[in-house]
Fold:
Amino acid sequence: AWDYLLTLGYAPENLILAGDSAGGNLALVLCHSLKAEHRPLPGALLLMSPWTDMTMSGASYRERVESDPMLTPEYIEAVRTAYAGGRDYASPDLSPLFADLTGFPPTLIQVGDHEILYSDSEQLYQAMKRANIPCRLQVSEGMWHVFQMFPIRKASVAIENIARFLLEQ
Structure:
């Protein structure tokens, strides 16, 4: 899809990669692959509740089990087994949290504070800051995994924040 957009004449810096959950993982992995191939990266990344760590090393995988109505550790384990098989879960191609993020585009990360994937967002934010990437982490209190997709006020606010971020890029 990325290559197709480029063949249509879109400039990479004018494209925004957005993804929620596993889609956030795919957006990060694509950036990592493009960077490894010395190809141009998108103008920005927009990540909603991104799944960045298939090793499940973050504390939220244990501490927020009761507060996340969407995901369970058992579900995450089943999905990663189906997707990654016997591969090393710490590989940057599966867990972009462990990739070299230097040179990545400006990034907006949104996450709910009740998510078992909360640590993935928090640790990604810290890794991007260490790599000197312009990055924002927006944490929505009382919210669950990919809350932006629900018809609630906090989702509307999150979408408005996305619009502001995109207008700045």
The radius of gyration is 16 Å. Strands lie at 16-20, 44-48, 107-112, 135-140.
